[in-house]
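Known limitations

Structure tokens in this collection are predictions and should be treated as such. Users comparing against experimental data should check residue numbering before alignment. To illustrate the layout, the record for NAD(P)/FAD-dependent oxidoreductase is reproduced below. The input appears on top and the generated tokens appear beneath it.
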Amino acid sequence: MTFQPSTAVLPAGAPTDPARHDVVIVGGGAAGLSAAVTLARSLRDVLVIDAGEPRNAPAEGAHNLLGREGIPPLELLATGREEALAYGAQIRRGTVTTARRTDDGFALTLADGDTVTARRLLLATGLVDELPEVPGVRELWGNHVLHCPYCHGYEVRGRRIGVLGTSPNALHQTFLLRQLSADVTLFLHESPEPDDEGWEQLAALGITVVTGRVRELAREGDCLRAVVLEDGHAFPVDAVAVQPRFVARGDLYEQLGGTLTENPMGTHITKDMAGATDLPGVWAAGNAGDLSAMVGASAAQGVMAGAVINSDLVLADLRTAVEARVGA
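Generated tokens:
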């Protein structure tokens, strides 16, 4: 199939097909758009509702993505929207504020007051990074401040890297970054001190450890200059790694009666390998249900969820057809 430029994404407030949709997907990131393509290719009536706030927008490129390595995140999503639209999916810009179950599916109300209905619901709503409350972290997030050595570590290889400790995971993150640079400093900040084995490991790798709380990340414009302690001592660095708390955007799931699951990384929607949640008719894909999923993994989860949702609808329609034939 040759993809041609298609109609633009419907803006907030624009009417969509008033008929009940087979599937509504909340979230137009890699997971949601991949699911939309999969469902649309099975001739499903699918609507994607996207707030237009991708988590990775500040990043210069998406990595570990075969065939699209380093593509700017917003370019990747623009291409994905074109592909979904070309197969017949509808995409609407907007925010879903409420969700409720109906006799035959789900009703979703948008911030503009409009309501859409669907037989099945896929939550690809992503997560929110709760960053350490240290001045400079948020301002440099996605550029000089990173969290995933696999997503953005290569880009700071061989440079002076600081690790801002806020959890027990800081030690493991430090070891991963030491693979990429010989100049790594662990700032304990709020993380617990290593045990004897941890100190021995840090010493063996030549990693500097700085005790005391961090006051700020010093910067000049958009450039990181140093990690500054509360006592004013400054340590020049080129990049800083942090450990955010990951919080799934799960308010709609909770409105439908679901309960978010807590783990050491944050909160998420519990799902199986195919994306099915504990709520009948509700699936999840991407970071909403997998806090560690990178772009490629999120896209794969969207494909799987889309395929299983289509299968579920096929079986439901089959049961209806059999019942109608028997009752005729």
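For this record: The longest strand covers residues 115-123. Confidence is low (pLDDT under 50) at residues 1-7. Please report discrepancies through the issue tracker.
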